[in-house]
Write a structure and sequence with these properties.
208 residues; Ferritin; 2 strands; mainly alpha; globular
Amino acid sequence: MSKGQVVDVQPIIDFLGSKTPQAWIDCALENQETLLVDHANCEKKAASTALNLMYRYVEFPQLLQKLSRLAREELRHFEQVHAIMRKRNIDYPQLNASRYAGGLRDQVSKQEPMRLVDTLIVGAIIEARSCERFAALAPHLDDELKDFYSSLLKSESRHFMDYLALAKQVADEAVVARRTDELLRIENALIADPDPEFRFHSGVPIAA
């Protein structure tokens, strides 16, 4: 791994219970412009999610501290992705969101405190999958993107752990474990099932 980044992604793979399908990696390498555009969108959305939680749950000091830092880091990542796009003369078109995040958020409880617990678990899962995909892609990319994606592993793995730790502060660990298993079953299906659109978190691409 480049630039001194040493992150063991195996615990993240163990948490997720599945690896990104090779068909998605192959498609990503063939569609790197779309990959970068959607990656930029994901960073903006991650910052927005953290800020929304900070506005909604001001009674949790630990949440405010951790998610404030997380939002700043996600915005910095967006700036880095956007800079690479500009350097490579990649346009920034509007892309519709993938089914992935929506499919997970559809499972979030409408009632508190489980609404917060589920939202935090979903955040942990998305960050974990992002980290796993950065690690899966990095060895196959040019030096600039390899260095960049490798450099993201440490922060993304920390974001995953922060979200999960916050969930355990709101609910009993057994409840968090049960909901995590339930949401991961949904997540694993979302990345393994055929998907008509390629996005950073999409499933197995449908052959044209």
